[in-house]
Design a protein that fits this description.
The chain is an alpha+beta fold. It has 3 domains: 168 residues, Immunoglobulin-like (Sandwich), CATH 2.60.40; 71 residues, no CATH class; 40 residues, no CATH class. The chain is 35% helix and 31% strand. It has 8 helices and 16 strands. The longest helix has 26 residues. It is elongated and about 95 Å long. The relative contact order is 0.11.
Length: 290
């Protein structure tokens, strides 16, 4: 008994209680019933008063236990890019033998409602977040909220942990295919037909698929190229105008190379990055901290 009481007190200290409009309704109702019982001495009024008081009194501990047994932990999943919406993953574990009901997770810019979390089960919640700029960032101030069971109080539990991660440069600029078309003579010879692609103005006119043009679709033929992947080199100074533009362009090309499984090198002012020696995330991290 004492152990359970100590646990409840510990849980209760982690919960903040805030009044709601239903709190005022309950207070007014109790006061009105008390006056009615005092003035007229009706048994039915006493019974109703006791019933309302019992509900209001029991709702507090039930709500505290409903929210207080939830444990949270941030998980690192996926990549973040500047000015692009990503998802921060929060794991919620219900450390109780009963189901937790009507929980809302509040983040910096969004909230996610949860109908219930079963007893002794985990649930993943994804909070949308847009990093303002590249580099390291932190995400804090998140909390759990519940008005269960009667909405007579708004209970909140702060998530003390701070999520920290790195935002890579915003991937934007000229497509990898447009870049390869510009350096086609140095990149390799066309080996075999690889299908059709929408015309974006950067491809050769000799590659236009005229049968598609006749049908009203402007498409071009693409080819797999026979080349040594080490020939694919990106130069920081020629990737754009200004450092931020160059970093964004390089980030876009790195992601495209990863998708198409192409080896590459990046000639930075003080270092050469190679996909054969470093992972994609290591290269992106270097660009984000440049």
């Amino acid at each position: 008994m004492m152990k359970s009481l100590r646990k409840f007190i510990q849980i209760h200290r982690s919960i903040k209680q805030h009044a709601t409009r239903f709190s005022a309704v309950v207070v007014v109702l109790l006061f009105g019933l008390f006056l009615e019982a005092y003035m007229h001495d009706f048994n039915l009024v006493y019974i109703t008063l006791f019933f309302v008081f019992s509900l209001a009194f029991s709702a507090g501990p039930i709500g505290v236990l409903n929210l207080g047994n939830l444990e949270t932990k941030f998980l690192k999943k996926g990549r973040f890019f500047a000015q692009v919406e990503g998802k921060i993953t929060l794991q919620i574990y219900n450390n109780s033998t009963t189901t937790a009901w009507a929980i809302t997770v509040h983040g910096k810019d969004a909230s996610v409602p949860i109908k219930h979390i079963k007893a002794e089960k985990n649930m993943l919640v994804h909070l949308p977040y847009i990093p303002e700029k590249r580099g390291l960032f932190s995400y804090d101030g998140a909390y759990l909220e519940s008005k269960y069971p009667l909405s007579t109080a708004r209970l909140t539990k702060n998530i003390s942990e701070t999520y920290e991660d790195i935002a890579y440069p915003q991937p934007k600029g000229k497509s990898l295919h447009a870049f390869l078309n510009e350096v086609e003579n140095h990149f390799g010879e066309e080996k075999e037909f690889d299908g059709l692609r929408a015309y974006d103005g950067s491809q050769k006119l000799s590659h236009i698929h005229w049968a598609s043009v006749a049908k009203g679709d402007m498409a071009v033929k693409t080819f797999i190229k026979e080349t040594e992947s080490a020939n694919l080199v990106f130069h920081f100074n020629s990737a754009g105008k200004g450092d931020e533009s160059r970093l964004s362009q390089l980030c876009l090309w790195v992601l495209a190379c990863e998708k198409e499984r192409l080896a590459f090198e990046i000639q930075m002012p003080k270092r050469k990055l190679s996909s054969k020696k470093e992972s994609i995330d290591e290269i992106l991290e270097y660009l984000s901290k440049y």
